Amino acid sequence: MYFDSPLQISNLALTAMGTRMFVYYQDRVPMGSPVLLVSNHRSFMDPPLLMAAIKRPIRFACHHYMGQVPVMRDMVNFLGAFPLEKPEHRQQSFFQQATELLQSRQVVGVFPEGTPPMVKFTKPNTMGDFQRGFAHLAMRAPVENLAVLPVAIASQEEVNNSAIPLKVLSFFDPSEPLFDQGGWHPMVIYRRTSVLIGRPCWITPHSREQYQGKQAKKVVADLIGYCQEEISTLLSQGCY
């Protein structure tokens, strides 16, 4: 029931909100293999949208504050997400939790753009720079047959509202500098959106062998570049 419930509630939530979702290239989703899913991120609706699209439960790594704010914390727990720790323990905790989930052949979801696109309104066809953590995880995690799956969320019609003052979120997570400013946290609600699934990148023993010394930096950069390019190309197809 634990693994089915997040998937069921994702479909129910999209139906209740009247969101029309179109999924492309669903045959690219690895079934039965551990998957590190990488996606662009603009809305609180992204996790249930992605789960409904790939038809597999996804354990999302989410921002620290989401595990602190009432109501939001309950939603995060129900969907099976794991909030990141405070900055001083964040990397170690992320690697440990994500590795354990991947070793049990689950899907781990990451939004490598980080917090900025969630606290500042961005256009549907734009994407920020990716942080490197997911690429290091893919190379370091002792997981066989690991697929890194880039996925693009391309919104064609949406409603934009203001959810909560950023200063309020600073009360729950003073470690996030983006909350120490005026303005409101945007709330993007999709009315019509496409989810376009990219070509998976399989992490092979050979690629892990290359992840050593001076070559490690290039291996990480190549994986990040692949995911960014794949998602950017899919966004250009889906945002019309």
UniProtKB/TrEMBL annotation:
Q: Which SMART domains match?
A: PlsC
| Signal peptide region | none
Q: Which Pfam families match?
A: Acyltransferase
Keyword annotations for this protein?
Answer: Acyltransferase, Transferase
Recorded GO molecular functions are: 1-acylglycerol-3-phosphate O-acyltransferase activity
Show the InterPro entries listed in the entry.
Answer: Plipid/glycerol_acylTrfase
Specify the Phospholipid/glycerol acyltransferase domain's residue ranges.
Answer: 35-156
This chain's protein is named: Phospholipid/glycerol acyltransferase
Q: Which organism is it from?
A: Crinalium epipsammum PCC 9333
Write out the GO biological process terms.
phosphatidic acid biosynthetic process
Which top-rank group of organisms is this from?
A: Bacteria
